[in-house]
Amino acid sequence: MDRPALEKLVKQNDVWLSRADVLHGIQRYETSQRKIRIYTDCGEAIIVNNSRRSASARSLRNSKYKKVCKKCKLSEERINRFVTKNFNDPAITYVDAGGSKKSASKKVGKKTTANIIPAPISSQEASDLSNFSKLSIVENTAEKNTAEKNTAKNTAKNTAEKKTAEAKSMPVKYSPSQKKRLESLLISDEFDLENDDSLPPFEALESLLVTRRKQELCDIYANSREHMLAKLERDISAFLISKGFIEIKSSILIPEEYIIKMGIDKDVELSKQIFRTDGGMCLRPMLAPVLYNYLHRFDKILPDPIKIFEIGPCYRKESDGSSHLEEFTMVNFCHMGSGVNRENLISLLDEFLTFLDIDYTIEGDECMVYGATVDVMHGDMELSSAVIGPIPMDMDWGVNKPWMGAGFGLERLLKARHKFKNIKRGSRSEHYYNGIYTSL
Ligand code: ATP
Ligand code: 9VF
Ligand code: MG
Q1: Distance in Å, CA 138 to ligand 2 centroid
Q2: Strands, E, within 345-393: which ranges?
Q3: What does the domain layout of the chain look like in residue ranges?
Q4: Shortest-distance Cα residue to atom 14 of ligand 1
């Protein structure tokens, strides 16, 4: 098998160079398509890209090191072999992927040893060293026990907070990319980046924020373990069920003709926002069409009034960022039959938002699909468009009773509740967990 270069280097050299050029013994290693996880003799686990062009590969080829890790207890033979690159010595056993060393053949007779004197270590390198061990701890979470992790975390936290305090005297400016990184680490939740002159240099501030974000994620893992979007869906679901609404889960993939039937013609804005798929289907941009069908069918089955709701993903091609997602979660509840009036709609909306602990105002508006709407606002952001029927379109769906309904975006509710600047923090995401950036 044609093995990638770094893996071969790891196997041959049997030692590893940290970022600060400290030499470690390799106890064992594991490879995947793109990564190598190296377990050092001193008990660290390091993950690196399995790339022939990586800095790690270059360091191993060049044999430059500054210091030997004391805990690894490297034999002179191992160091010597690394430096002289004498890999053909049959007396030497090499480490294998996944396994530990095969034999005691390291006990070779005393051989001529190259005169290796490590260069003295600078203070910058010493701090790189501490970064290296921090990094290793993060990558090695599965193997370490909680007590060790907490000690390491506290050390990292103390270092970061010390650095912050030391540098408080001089105002610092950050580059655009540094600001972007600090924003992703949620600096604005805690500090005023633009106006606070007492903020420390980038590295110290980044380190402090990373420590805090990690701690928050660990707290979630130790305590609630619930995703805020999923939890909100569960809470809303329980609330509506308690108010007599029946829960529906319908398909996310719907016939494209439902969009036309909702009065959304080709030249209407929403029509251009539809994600169309093969076979005349599309990703639903709203829950209303299928809820209309349910109202029609349930009216023949269930007693008056008919109260239904659905919560689930909706898709729209959007260009406008901070309150719009292309993939968002809608709740649409609808009450048809007796008890439909504006007063009851407003009082249901009030109970709903009081239950969710979100401030709101009510405004009248017009929309293309439903005509007159009762808009629920949080500042300038629309939380919901609510409507009181009947409306002419009902006929096309076989619905002939009065109704009242409302559609809320769950991510907008989270944005309002948690004062997020960016709606992405509460959305389905690979990058944010409960509003916390996970590339730490
Ligand atoms: P906007 O004018 O803000 O684009 P809209 O009028 O298109 O909203 P509706 O079609 O009435 O919105 O949808 C009902 C609710 O769904 C909205 O009040 C909002 O809370 C939410 N919503 C709509 N589009 C999005 C989106 N792209 N991202 C997140 N939530 C959305
Ligand atoms: C109000 C918002 C289609 C008669 C079963 C219920 C409503 C708001 C809906 C959504 C939409 N309408 N984004 O209708 O509840 O459909 O535009 Si029914
Ligand atoms: Mg819109």
Answers
A1: 47
A2: 361-367, 371-378, 381-388
A3: 6-103, 176-222, 228-437
A4: 407
Give, in order, the Cα–Cα distances in Å from 295 to each of 145, 259, 292, 340, 408.
55, 17, 5, 14, 19
pLDDT digits 0-9 by tens, 319-343: 988 999 999 999 999 999 999 999 9
Q: DSSP label at 122?
A: P
Calpha distance 424→431 (Å, rounded): 9
Give residue-wise pLDDT tens across range 224-266.
999 999 999 999 999 999 999 999 999 999 999 999 999 999 9
Long-range contacts of 292-300 (CB under 8 A, 24+ apart): 292/394, 292/397, 292/399, 293/397, 294/248, 294/250, 295/334, 295/336, 295/397, 295/399, 295/403, 296/397, 296/398, 296/399, 299/336, 299/399, 299/401
Residue 96 has pLDDT above 80, yes or no: no
- Ligand 1, atom 6: nearest CA belongs to which residue? 385
User: Which numbered ligand comes closest to the C-alpha of 416?
Assistant: 1
Around Cβ 240, how many Cβ atoms within 10 Å? Answer: 22
Ligand 1 pocket member 412 (CB < 6 A)? yes
Instruction: Tell me the DSSP string of 168-203.
Output: GGS-----HHHHHHHHHTTGGGT--TTT-TT---HH
3-class DSSP state of 262: coil
Residue the block writes with tokens 């972007």: 180
pLDDT of 150 over the 50 cut:
no
Identify the residue with better confidence: 115 or 209. Answer: 209
Pairing of strands 253-255, 281-283: antiparallel
pLDDT tens-digit readout, 64-91: 888 899 999 998 888 888 888 888 755 5
Q: How far is CA 334 from the centre of its chain?
A: 33
Ligand 2 mean position to 9 CA, how many Å?
62
Query: Which CATH class for the 228-437 domain?
Result: alpha beta
Nearest CA to ligand 1 atom 29: 324
The response to whether residue 375 sits with its C-beta less than 6 Å from ligand 1 reads: no
CATH architecture of 176-222: Orthogonal Bundle (1.10)
